[in-house]
Amino acid sequence: MMRIFNTRTGVKEFFIPQDPFEVKVYVCGPTVYDLCHVGHARTYVNFDVLKRYLTSLGYNVIHVQNFTDIDEKIDHRAKKEGLSPREVAERFIMEYFFDMDSLNVTRATRYTKASEYVPKIIKITERLLELGYAYRSGDAIYFDVEGAGGFGELVRDLKSAIVDEVRASGKRGPFDFVLWRITGEGFESPFGRGVPGWHTECVAMSMDNLGEVLDIHWGGKDLIYPHHECEALIAKALTGKRFVKYWVHNEFVLLKGQKMSKSSGERAYIRDVLKRYSAEVLRTWILSSNYREKIEFSEESLRKAQLLYEKISRAATKARGNEGMGQCAKDYAELFMSALDDDLETGQALSVVEELSDRVLEGKIEGAWRIFSLVESVLGIKIRPH
Ligand SMILES: [Zn+2]
């Protein structure tokens, strides 16, 4: 049985979805104002392998993923380029698909856009006001964090914000966050024309498509706080239920020791990397580490991944067509699957494939094609004839 690291409990847990045949997953998608970089590639490739693996185990995975297409950064870029925010968002949604398709990331069951969920977000905000978990102060509707029981689903020991700042903002509590900001522009609402807060949008989109309780909620580690902590509290205030069974977060990609991100400026766009390395090599590079380890993006590590990929391709080409599995090949297949069973240890799984490849190339093993076909179907690394 598969074990997966749950951010909520801080340990690896056996994976048991609510329905024995179906897995409901929500993945936080990108804010669409720029091209995807290697940090995004990691998030979506890692999740793609989890999805492929669960599918190979027989689960029907329902994967819902959003595009955050309401954001000041989108407005900013639109103004700079003389476009409408919608045009900017639509362009970068297309670019997202272009990049992810090139990396062989399977498409979600459904993609949602925040802009299409505004009526649902408003309904949630109204409901929270009715329940007494939200209040109006100045030009915003806030969520009352303490009133709803406080944070603690994913993070503990938060330092409280500076109290004076809190008073000036009109918030009652230091951690209260905006559900709706009245700006005089944007979307019509009973509270006044304005824009929704970010956290509510994911609650609206996930619950509408997947129901009140999700099996897996995936995202980059930077989303744990405040985004996922706030989502969890909003959902619990609405339903009285724990929102997510397994919170799963992947680590960052580092570039020159810094977290790769759009806002930090330290980034390598996927399509620029793909001018120098194939998509299979980039995917091999990403999967050479466990999703919970930090990885440093460097030419040296990419070249290493390239050598590994070439070796696997050579061995697979030699093994192709030979479907019979000897005991030795079976042992390797078992090691491969048990690595993935252990919190998706893709690095370990690739080590198994590397060792197998060596032996195939030395002529010591035959009939291992089925393992290479797992590399294609589960790790999503296409084998090109070599
Ligand atoms: Zn989200």
Question: Would you mind describing this structure in some detail?
Answer:
The chain has 386 residues and is α/β, with parallel strands linked by helices. It has two domains: 240 residues, Rossmann fold, CATH 3.40.50; 101 residues, Four Helix Bundle (Hemerythrin (Met), subunit A) (Up-down Bundle). It has 13 helices and 14 strands. The strands form four sheets. Strands 5-4-3-10-11 form a five-stranded parallel β-sheet, with helices on both faces. Strands 6-7-8-9 form a four-stranded antiparallel β-sheet. A hairpin with a 4-residue loop joins strand 1 and strand 2. It is elongated, with a radius of gyration of 23 Å. The model has no long low-confidence stretch (mean pLDDT 94). The site of zinc ion has 3 residues, from loops.
Give the gist of this structure.
The protein is an alpha/beta fold. The chain contains 13 helices and 14 strands.
Note poorly predicted spans.
Answer: none
Task: Tell me the number of structural domains.
Answer: 2
Q: In percent, how much strand structure appears in the residues?
A: 15-25%
Gross geometry: elongated
Enumerate the strands of the largest sheet in spatial order, edge to edge or round the barrel.
5-4-3-10-11
Return the string of H and E elements: EEEHEHHEHEEHEEHEHEEEHHEHHHH
* Radius of gyration using CA atoms only: 23 Å
Overall mean confidence score, pLDDT: 94
Share of residues in helices: 40-55%
| Estimated structural class | alpha/beta
CATH class of the largest domain: Alpha Beta
Instruction: Give a quick account of the main beta sheet: strands, pairing sense, barrel closure.
Output: 5 strands, parallel
Q: How many distinct helices?
A: 13
Which architecture of the largest domain would the CATH scheme give at its second level? 3-Layer(aba) Sandwich
Bound molecules: zinc ion
Number of strands: 14
Q: What gap, in angstroms, lies between the N and C termini? A: 35 Å
The CATH fourth-level homologous superfamily of the largest domain: HUPs
The CATH topology of the largest domain: Rossmann fold
